[in-house]
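Now for today's protein:

——
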Amino acid sequence: MSLGWLTGSELKFGPIKDVLLAATYEYGGGADANNLLTGVGFSWDVPGLQYFDTNFYHVDNDDAFDTPDDWQTTITWGAPFEIGPARFLFDGFIDYSSGVGGAQKAELHVNPQFTLDIGHFSGNPGVMYAGIEYSHWRNKFGTSAIETENAVSALVKFHF
């Protein structure tokens, strides 16, 4: 959430466009483990990118796995571009979780997406995208049981 918007003040300085309050709640799955991530983020002014944000979280890990709290950094980006009449978007995220000495391994999840703005062809740009995404996850969920996972997926996104 934009602190500039909340306070009604422009929080722009240097390459930073805004300061953000960041929070994520992870829940569900077969393990019934719930985690609360809270922190601060920055929205950066990067030429050619629609957005580039960095968030820094303290992770309050649920006690379901007896895992101590740790830290996570998330980077998100979006780079729109055009080739002829076609509009594309290259976006995605990178998550790095610090892990906790011995209890949980550090993990890295890289998830870029390359999509075509299908809505643009029907006069509704930015509403429907289709493309592919690649997911690389090292030490998924901080466990050595899944050391590395790689997957390519077809992707359709609708924006309301």
Observations:
- Helices lie at 3-7.
- The two ends are 19 Å apart (CA to CA).
